[in-house]
């Protein structure tokens, strides 16, 4: 220890180094005295001092260089020896302290082996006693929770505190016990208490040495009790018990870790086992549930935040409860959609299907022609009406029926046509008695001109639809087979005013056209409630066929009913859907008016719930076609009924939307979109069902291979088979569509199929480049097979068919079978009289060239044809 210098002795003068002196000068220099010269002097002084110091060092070393070298080598050697010594000390320490690093001879000695055995046994015995003591100190099960602060050593009077026991465990053993303890607490003290009602009894026992144990006993309560707040109270009691009597015994680090590890599972358990499962499904139970939810928020703050010390600010229970209105409405919406899904995916019960009646306004759909309007006369003139480009009368109505002007017609002939038949080519061919038209058993033969009685029957077209059945029933109607349309259309409209029919003179056929009377189509009678279908709309893109003079008629003036009722079949699931929509809107309104839920920034009460209504419509549109895909694919009837379902739901939805007020108005836009979507879907399925059958008809007619080479019997048989298959297919589809569709849509669909069939036949035959005499007869026979389809458009045998109203190409097709067997003179006459206006000029020219040899007569006829259809002046 250094001897202290007495304070009275003089001190050595302070010898500061040059840098200190210079720095002192700098600090003592004032701002006024500080300049560049002073700074330069200070730098120069420092550089000079450094140079002098380096020189003195160099001189000192140079003066005794050998001694300097010796001392330098010695210093390096000492440094190396120190490093080696440090390494050896570390190795020696490791060898002494590590029991696995004993010398090899010692390792093989019996003493070392015995020491190892005793050490291992002692360690195992100590660990086992610690585990036993721990297990006697802490007991957690579904029936009780016990914590003993002190534990007596077995077979000894010594006792050890639980704190010492936990501190004596190795870190790995303690971590294992904490993991097991956490699992037991969550399983027996959290999940068990939250899942079922229980009763809790708490007891503390003690002896002369202090508290012996702290105990909580759990008793299952009767299963009928569902007090959720009581479960939260029980959980609070148990967690308080653990926090007071168990957690304090653990070391500080492990205690904090165990407490925080319980926080998240505890929140999750309260949410998943209490709040979510017991979220009510009815508005009446919601107020009580809100009180319980507030208690859950308090429990989170009391247990998780304060007891367990979770200060992360997560508060997931509070965040969930703050949005409880959204959770309630989401749950109700999910339940409603599940209910809707069950309705749509379950097989439909045929017994629940029902008919929906709709009223059609005839004045809007097919207005009558005014009585003062005149009809075109035989010479093509009109009075107070319109004349089209071909001299034929055009009705004022925009509807297809009036535009065609085929309703309630009787044939008119000019008196000039009487006498010697048609007055030309009398000697060309002998007269032949006309034969009955093939396939005309379903209605009047098209080659027979109407008589006066037939005219009256044609005027009373309402009877063809069965609307006047109660006024003049017939025996045939009494014996008719039950029809799906019998009851819905059994209305009793006002009696029509009596009409007077003018006598009609039947024309005499020309001698050169023996078979032409066969081609005169029967007078069409259009059902009053019929409307242009989509199929007609497609066909009307081209000019509609105009009647020839042989089909021009006088319009009878009679009163017609202004409204009729028709019906269609709808599935029973549509009632369930509409009732579901009404229930959803009503429930949403009740939720808003109750005021139980408070508005939030994100959503007003009731809006989320009422969104289930348009979403149920989306499920209807999406699931029904998928769940019933096989049935819709195989049955011609089911797609039409699904189209009816969409149509009915859309019409009912219009009524629902029109009455939306107050909170319900929030869904108006979505429901209106649903109305439009259902209309599109109804039309799409209706059109797709027709298109599917049209494709099948085209595929069947592919077997005819364009009707070529029909002179060969084998080819003729193939064509005849294809035509018959088409006829049979249409007849098979007819009863299935008729059973579900309304009359107007049924005839629209049927007309589209027939139009597809005859248009294909027309196109294939008119495309033939050369037709021999044998082929012309056989092709005519093939065409007449499809004439049987006219009977599908007859409802009253006393009335003519209304096929022309729904099959735009029917007249053209009817003339084709006759033109195939007609002479050039016959064709010329029909052309001049305007009977062939349905044909394009190039079609007629091509047909004449295919049927007849190249002669001057054919050339002159073609020249006349190329001049265009005759135009009759007014």
From TrEMBL:
Alphabetized InterPro entries for the sequence: Zw10/DSL1_C_sf, ZW10_C_2
Pfam families linked: ZW10_C2 (PF22766)
Cited Gene3D superfamilies: 1.10.357.150
Annotated Low complexity bias: 531-541
GO biological process: endoplasmic reticulum to Golgi vesicle-mediated transport; mitotic spindle assembly checkpoint signaling
Highest rank taxon of the organism: Eukaryota
Cellular component terms per the entry's GO annotation: cytoplasm; RZZ complex
Domain ZW10 C-terminal helical span(s) in chain numbering: 722-865
Biased composition range(s): Acidic residues: 397-409, 476-489
Basic and acidic residues bias spans: 365-375, 383-396
Annotated stretches, region: Disordered: 365-548
The protein's name: ZW10 C-terminal helical domain-containing protein
Organism of derivation: Pycnoporus cinnabarinus
């Amino acid at each position: 220890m250094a001897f202290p210098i007495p304070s009275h002795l003089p001190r050595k003068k302070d010898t500061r180094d040059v840098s200190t002196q210079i720095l002192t000068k700098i600090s003592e220099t004032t701002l006024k005295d500080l300049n560049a010269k002073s700074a330069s002097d200070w730098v120069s002084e420092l550089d000079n001092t450094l140079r002098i110091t380096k020189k003195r060092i160099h001189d000192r070393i140079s003066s005794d260089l050998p001694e300097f070298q010796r001392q330098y080598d010695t210093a390096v050697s000492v440094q190396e020896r120190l490093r080696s010594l440090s390494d050896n000390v570390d190795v020696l320490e490791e060898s002494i302290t590590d029991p696995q690093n004993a010398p090899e001879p010692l390792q093989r000695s019996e003493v070392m082996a015995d020491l190892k055995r005793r050490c291992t046994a002692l360690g195992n015995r100590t660990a086992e006693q610690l585990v036993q003591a721990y297990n006697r100190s802490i007991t957690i099960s579904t029936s009780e929770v016990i914590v003993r602060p002190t534990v007596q050593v077995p077979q000894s009077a010594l006792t050890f505190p639980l704190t010492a026991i936990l501190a004596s465990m190795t870190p790995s053993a303690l971590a294992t016990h904490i993991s097991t303890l956490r699992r037991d607490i969550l399983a027996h003290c959290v999940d068990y208490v939250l899942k079922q009602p229980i009763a809790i009894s708490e007891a503390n026992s003690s002896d002369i040495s202090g508290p012996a144990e702290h105990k909580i006993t759990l008793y299952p309560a009767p299963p009928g009790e569902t007090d959720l707040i009581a479960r939260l109270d029980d959980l609070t009691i148990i967690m308080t018990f653990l926090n007071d009597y168990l957690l304090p015994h653990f070391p500080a680090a492990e205690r904090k870790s165990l407490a925080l590890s319980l926080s998240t599972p505890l929140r999750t358990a309260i949410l998943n086992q209490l709040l979510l499962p017991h979220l009510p499904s009815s508005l009446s139970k919601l107020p009580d549930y809100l009180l319980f939810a507030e208690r859950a928020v308090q429990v989170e703050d009391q247990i998780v935040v304060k007891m367990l010390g979770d200060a992360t600010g997560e508060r997931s229970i509070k965040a969930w409860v703050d949005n409880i209105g959204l959770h309630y409405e989401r749950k109700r919406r999910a339940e409603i959609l599940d209910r809707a899904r069950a309705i749509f995916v379950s097989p439909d019960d045929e017994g629940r299907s029902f008919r929906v009646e709709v009223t059609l306004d005839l004045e809007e759909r097919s207005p009558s022609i005014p009585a003062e309007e005149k009809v075109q006369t035989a010479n093509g003139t009109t009075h107070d009406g319109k004349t089209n480009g071909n001299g034929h009368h055009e009705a004022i109505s925009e509807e297809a029926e009036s535009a065609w002007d085929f309703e309630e017609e009787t044939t008119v002939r000019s008196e000039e046509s009487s006498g010697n038949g048609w007055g030309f080519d009398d000697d060309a061919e002998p007269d032949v008695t006309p034969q009955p038209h093939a396939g005309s058993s379903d209605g009047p033969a098209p080659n027979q001109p109407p008589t006066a009685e037939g005219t009256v029957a044609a005027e009373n077209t309402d009877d063809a639809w069965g609307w006047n059945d109660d006024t003049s029933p017939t025996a045939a109607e009494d014996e008719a087979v039950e029809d799906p349309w019998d009851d819905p259309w059994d209305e009793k409209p006002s009696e029509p005013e009596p009409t007077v029919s003018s006598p009609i003179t039947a024309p005499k056929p020309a001698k050169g056209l023996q078979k032409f009377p066969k081609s005169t189509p029967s007078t069409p009678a259009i059902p009053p409630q019929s409307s242009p279908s989509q199929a007609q709309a497609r066909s009307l893109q081209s000019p509609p066929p105009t009647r020839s003079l042989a089909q021009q008629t006088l319009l009878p003036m009679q009163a017609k009913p202004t409204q009729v009722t028709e019906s269609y079949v709808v599935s029973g699931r549509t009632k369930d859907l509409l009732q579901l929509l009404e229930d959803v809107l009503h429930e949403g309104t009740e939720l808003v008016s109750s005021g139980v839920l408070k508005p939030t920034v994100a959503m007003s009460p009731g809006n989320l719930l009422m969104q289930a209504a348009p979403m149920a419509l989306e499920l209807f549109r999406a699931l029904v076609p998928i769940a019933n895909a096989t049935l819709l694919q195989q049955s011609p009837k089911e797609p039409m009924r699904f189209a009816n379902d969409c149509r009915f739901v859309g019409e009912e939805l219009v009524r629902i939307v029109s009455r939306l007020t107050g909170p319900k108005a929030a869904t108006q836009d979505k429901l209106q979109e649903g109305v439009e979507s259902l209309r599109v879907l109804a039309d799409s399925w209706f059109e797709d069902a027709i298109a599917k059958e049209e494709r099948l008809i085209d595929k069947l007619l592919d077997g005819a291979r364009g009707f070529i080479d029909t002179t060969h019997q084998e080819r003729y048989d193939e064509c005849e088979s294809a035509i018959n298959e088409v006829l049979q297919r249409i007849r098979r589809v007819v009863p299935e569509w008729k059973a579900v569709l309304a009359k107007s849509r049924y005839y629209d669909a049927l007309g589209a199929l027939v139009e597809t069939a005859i248009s294909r036949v027309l196109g294939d035959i008119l495309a033939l480049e050369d037709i021999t005499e044998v082929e012309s007869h056989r092709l005519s026979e093939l065409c007449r097979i499809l004439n049987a389809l006219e009977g599908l458009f007859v409802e009253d045998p006393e009335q003519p068919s209304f096929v022309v109203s729904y099959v735009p190409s029917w007249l053209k097709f009817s003339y084709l079978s006759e033109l195939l067997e007609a002479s050039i003179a016959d064709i010329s006459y029909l052309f001049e009289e305007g009977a062939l206006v349905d044909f394009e000029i190039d079609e007629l020219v091509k047909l004449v060239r295919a049927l007849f040899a190249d002669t001057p007569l054919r050339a002159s006829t073609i020249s006349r044809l190329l001049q265009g259809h005759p135009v009759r002046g007014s």
